[in-house]
Amino acid sequence: MTGRVRVVWAPELLGYDFGHGHPMTSERLDLTMRLAESLAVLAGDDVERVGAEPAADELLHTVHDPLYVAAVHAAAEHGRLDLERGLGTDDDPVFPHMHAAAARVVQGSVDAALAVWSGQVEHAVNVAGGLHHAKPGAASGFCVYNDAAVAIRALQAAGARRVAYVDVDAHHGDGVQDVFWSDPNVLTVSLHETGHALFPGTGHPREVGGPGAEGTAVNIALPSGTGDAGWLRAFDAVVPAVVRAFEPDVLVTQHGCDSHLLDPLTHLRVSVDAQRLVAQRLHDLAHEVAGGRWLALGGGGYAVIDVVPRAWTHLLGIVVHRPVDPATPVPATWSDLVRDRYGRSGPPTMSDGATATFRPWSAGYDPSDDLDRVVRATRAAVFPLLGLDTDYD
Question: Rounded distance, CA 163 to CA 150, Å?
Fold first, then answer.
């Protein structure tokens, strides 16, 4: 397999932006790519940077209802609201060129997935992607089209037998789960804040997949306030085991960084350092179980200056095999840009100074701990269905 990697990026991807004051601002992407470039993360002949044209309607129809795609066209071209299909809500306001902007993100993820599958590249990343809430017939949660689901469908059409999708966004990856609910050949794993406290209100341990696909939906619904130790412990207790048991041909991951303690929309307390560690663990897992075939996507994350650029620059560094030392100072050129643009200082280093340590699940279970009870519920729900031993008896 080639050692080349693909980074999906072009200025046109900044067009996916719901407007002033909306959390899903393309400033997140601009600052990320500028930080990665200032640290020379993307330098080297082994990194190919590739843009994307908007996906054709026929490709979108592999996941999305044609009537919904037509409604997005109408919204983009004529400003036509369709609240039943989620177009024109506070979460998903209509904006000019909405269809082209969202379809471009999809094509970027599909092209990257197929490049990985064909062996053209070993890994690929699209930080503009990871729009995991979009449903087949409706926009939802800042997501118009579901690029992750379309990319997985494209992998299946290209011959991938089994695809594993791991989502570490603070919000449940409900759209991807819904698309593949009854597909035994796609594993969806979501590590998120409990739906009792956070949109979209789903992702409970008892959601394990539809008839004939039981065990292929895995949900770890974390208590609000969970920090590094609990977040990493939950990941360690569930994710590697279920992915290994599934034996995927390709690993697709979503790296929403809104689990961070500074994120304004969620209630988890995770550090950039822990997010970096999980990205590295997923990279290693791709090599262990999928021959290195790995597509990494962005997602949520609304601490635009302090978190998203650092978290996703770490992700980019891991994908392209140039990991950034957490102790690295943030370059003065990037800090000056932040100060000139926003009138404030950015973070001084690529670390939050966290140790990102945890007690592994193998060290024992504490029935008085909320986090441990959540993890045990997930293991009890899905481990037997995947042929794994559990500790709930």
Answer: 12
- Specify whether the CB–CB gap between 57 and 352 falls below 8 A: no
Tell whether 391 is covered by a domain: no
pLDDT tens by residue, 276-285? 999 999 999 9
Low-confidence ranges of the chain (pLDDT < 50): 1, 392-393
Summarize pLDDT for 288-323 with one digit per residue, the tens: 999 999 999 999 999 999 999 999 999 999 999 999
- pTM of the complete model: 0.97
Length of the chain: 393
Q: How far is CA 377 from the centre of its chain?
A: 23
* Cα 27 versus chain centre, distance: 18
For residue range 159-181, list pLDDT tens digits in order.
999 999 999 999 999 999 999 99
Q: What 3-state class would DSSP assign to 247?
A: coil
Instruction: Say how many C-beta atoms besides its own lie within 10 A of residue 143's C-beta.
Output: 26
Q: How many domains does the chain have?
A: 1
Domain contains 340: yes
Q: What pLDDT is recorded for position 391?
A: 67
Residue written as tokens 């095999």? Answer: 321
Q: Which helix (H) or strand (E) holds 199?
A: none
Q: Which residues 6+ apart lie within 8 Å of 313 measured at CB?
A: 32, 35, 36, 39, 41, 324, 350
Residue 261: domain span? 5-386
Q: Is residue 257 part of a domain?
A: yes
Q: Is residue 78 annotated as part of the catalytic site, yes or no?
A: no
Q: Is residue 392 part of a domain?
A: no
DSSP letters spanning 86-97:
TBTSSSS---TT
What burial class does residue 267 get, using C-beta atoms within 10 Å of its C-beta: 0-12 exposed, 13-18 middle, 19+ buried? middle
Tokens of 118: 């064909």
CATH number of domain containing 203: 3.40.800.20
114 CB-side CA count, 13 A: 11
Rounded CA-CA distance 80/78 in Å is: 5
Non-local CB neighbours of 289 within 8 Å, separated by 6+ positions? 164, 243, 244, 247, 248, 251
Active-site hit among 64, 133, 192, 314? 133
